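I had to read the description of the data format several times before I understood it. The format is easy to grasp once an entry is in front of the reader. For illustration, here is how one protein appears when written out as sequence plus structure tokens:
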Amino acid sequence: MAIRFACACGQQLAVKDEYAGRKVRCTSCSQILSVPGGAPAAPAAAPPVARHAPAPPPPVARRPVDDDRDYDEEERPRRRKKKGGIPRAVIAGVAVLLLLGVGFLVWKLFFSGPSAAALAEFDLVPRDAEGFLTIRVADVLKTEAGKKVFEAARQNDKEGALKEMEAKAGITPQDIERLTFVAMSADKELWWMVIRTSKAVNRKGVIDGMKSAQERTHQGKKYHYSEAEHTGVYFISDQQMVFAPEPGMKKVLELPEKPPSGPLDEMIEMAAKNDHHVFGGGQVPANQRQAAQAQMGPFAESVKSLLEAKSAYLTADVKSKIELTIGIELPDKGKAEAAAKEIETLITMARGFLAFAPPELKPQAQDALNQLKPKQDGTRVSVGLSLESGPLVNALVKQIEMQGGGRREGGPQRPPRRPR
């Protein structure tokens, strides 16, 4: 049951029996009242009667009064809401998101493979191809060695072929982010070259630079082909194009949108990580292994595990030194361990031939052999080598200068045009 009573202001109140003898606040005038019942309480002093009723306080918005509403012994002071500031829930949520973001970044950097976008760049490399070679041209040309070689090439471009290419295509070699060569079957002209640039190329200029190029269609896709140059070009986009002889071009246009799995899967993933300036990889067909074994004769027995390599790869990085790595993939860990031992034996044999090396090459050869130490990682065996970039760069520059000088000094020249 509820105890019902009235305030002096006329407001009717109702509370539960358990509040008998306790104090509550009137919901209308906010006066403290004693609930009837329970232990007798001292009578409250009657409020003084004024001849004129005081002005009512400004109305305050209140919740509707429920007659069965429970009342505390004394109303607790209301907490004032702070203006402004960020709720704790929001701060906690942001902190969780930051932690998740950092965790995801660490996973991507250290525990995940190449991204889908990076792998998609190699969609024009069939996983059953004989091999491929990809070069990050722009990054190589940013190195000191790359700058020196390119400057020599530009200075010896006496016929202006480089300048003409830049003018027509609207790009420079520094705009070529990646060049990838793919070989399906070199003897059948099933090969092509994919070029990706950092800026849009002038399609018309590229086509005009080809001699008598004609538009052709295969598999509903248009490309331009020059019979005179035995080369065609297909524009995937303004920043990606393919050059190939006609058999290779048709093969490219017949490729599925997503390449099926094949022997080069691991090689493509390694290349897609962009860890190296140059990456080349290919499979070793069984017939080639058998042919090599037949050519070696009795010596093949000492390298029989090496001859079972399923695939091979090479990486190169241009720094203060040229960092090279050569690796092979074996059928199992046992064969890989045996192949590593066979490589050590070959290195030991090579040291015995140093006495017959030219004196000027002996120090470099000795240094190279000392660096060759096979490293096994599961079914993979590799050896690394660091070469001084200076001598290699100087040799390249000298070769470029000789070619340019040969043209100036009466080397092979284009025959003069006959007057019409």
In short: The chain has three domains: 1-77, 92-116, 117-161+171-198+234-406. Residues 40-55, 57-84, 101-113, 406-420 have pLDDT under 50 and may be disordered. The longest helix spans residues 88-110. Residues 92-116 form one domain.
